[in-house]
Amino acid sequence: MDERAALNTRPSLYEQALRLDRADRNGPPPRTTSAIRSGDRGKRPRRTWQETRNAAREALEAVLAEPDPARAAEEVDRRLPELQVRVGHLTAATRDMTLPDESRARVLGRHLTRSGTTAYAVGAGIALLTRLGEAEDVPYLMALGLLPDFTDVAIGALDAIDARAASLLWLDRRARTEQLGPLVNALTSGDDAAVRAHLLDLPVRSRTVGSTTARRIAQSIRLPDLVRHEAADPGIIAQCARLLARMASRRHYEPEILNYPEAVDAYEAVVAKASRLAPSPSHHATLLSLALDLHSGPAVALDWSSRQREALLDACGTLLAAPGWAAALAALEPAEPLQSHRLHWLRRNARRPFASVPGPCRLRIEVVEPDPADPDVVETRFLVDGRPLVPWAFRRGPGHSPEYLLDNGSLRATANAREVQLAEAYCTEGCCGALHVTIRREGDEVVWGGWRGASGGVVVPEYRFDAALYDAEITRAENDHSWSWPARDTARLIAAGLRERPDLLTGWDAAKGWIGTDFNAPHITVLSFILWPGLAAGRKDRDGPWLQFVWRLPDDGTPPAERAAAALRRLAADDPKTYADVIGGSREYAEELGYSWPEGGRRRG
User: Fold this and answer.
1) How far apart are CA 418 and CA 364, in angstroms?
2) pLDDT tens digit sequence for 166-192
3) CA 25 from chain center: how many Å?
4) Distance between CA atoms of 394 and 452, rounded to whole angstroms?
5) CA–CA separation, 273 vs 244, rounded Å?
6) Angle in degrees, CA 190, 193, 197, rounded to 5
7) Cβ atoms 176, 25 nearer than 8 A
8) Full-prediction pTM beyond 0.85?
9) How many CB atoms within 10 Å of residue 538?
10) Are the CB atoms for 390 and 456 separated by under 8 Å?
11) Residues with Cβ < 8 Å from 454, sequence gap 6 or more?
């Protein structure tokens, strides 16, 4: 009987994490820790997130008043289960707590993470170490991060202490895909030779390596040091340059380049070693992508010293203009459409980031198409006083397309104020928001104010621009199509024609939809429209069935103006429903009218 208490002692969660570590370090994470957290879960009281965070903070402040760590731990296990808070609430609560004695709070955090037997105790310990942790806490946080309930908060705590350790844990728990698995195994085992070998084999594309994954890999491999190594393989330099380009992408919401502390050092290292790369379309595209980001992308917002960024741009421009690189580009004439499009993208943009000179207006607008080999949206970039606006104010998506903002005159300023959506989250505004500004003209000034939707607590100030200079910049941007290509020009001209003559579609009971180019086949112009019965007669049936169509026009080499004019003539003469394809709407309605329903088509009631 005297030994029963010892036999029934519950092991700490840290000890259980170590057993997981020893049992299967490279395997997938366990699916649940419900057995570990037995009794911790329950019906949560109805409170707002803010109210729950405040309740957690009050409880932790009371716990911290207890000088003995063991008794404080008991208080945690008594108070927090009553509140039914989540681990994230605890981390948020400690962020703005007043800590009269940080040393004692750190001791308690360590006691809870190392000895805690409940999720509340360990969660409170990790929350304290997120703010107060030091190097000696890294091994404990790494181990606890193996438990799914603590993975994200452990990574957050490690980010503040040891970014490389945080990235190793993130990759270990979040990136064990078929393509990334070998590299992750090599990183977690500390096999440097294997890391280099698997890094060379890694396909650095958006579907394999998102912006966050690219940053975590860069931190794990110590990218600047790896590139600067005397024996650095040109293949390693190229892969590191691709990782840097991926981090600046807006495809996965936030440009991770802004979360990468070594970003400036990484740009310096890559550009300094870029001359070791052989002239090729792939290397040229990667370096040009870096230059476009250094010129007008999120990278502009990094903490550069005086003229440092401009010097890197000059170095990139000098290298890409060198005879060997220029000759290699001029000699290429691929026949395959996507390769041809990429080649023409290289030629169109070859000097754009190096020759563009900011005008006198505080506002500068740039339109950028990313490398077509890894398709992404064409974005409109805004720089105010030389600083990129959207990556700072709204981290959930890129600036809208030029068709949305420039082609229809949305940015023109009039005496009547109007709200304009500058950027939208990739998932849609209804999910993660959008950035709006109200543009108005006041005498000899144009004002951007009334901001809505800024993310991360950012407060965007009111901007005032000289009206004459603003008008000149908007006119320049609206008429500068040097970024564009024939299929996109054709789409723009068709859209302009339909703005002048909407009856070309409404006469066929069709409402104009999206007009642009195919995302994965940019040499194809796409016109979408919706069949609304009664539209031509002015009796649009909003509640009735409808169909969505697309008309695809491959580039046949005809000048865009001629192709657009021919398309508009055909719309005037022939019902577009007879030559466009159904892609969505009501399947029953499509079959009733005799249209083929596409495989995987989008059905609506």
Assistant:
1) 20
2) 999 999 999 988 899 999 999 999 999
3) 30
4) 10
5) 14
6) 115
7) no
8) yes
9) 7
10) no
11) 393, 394, 435, 460
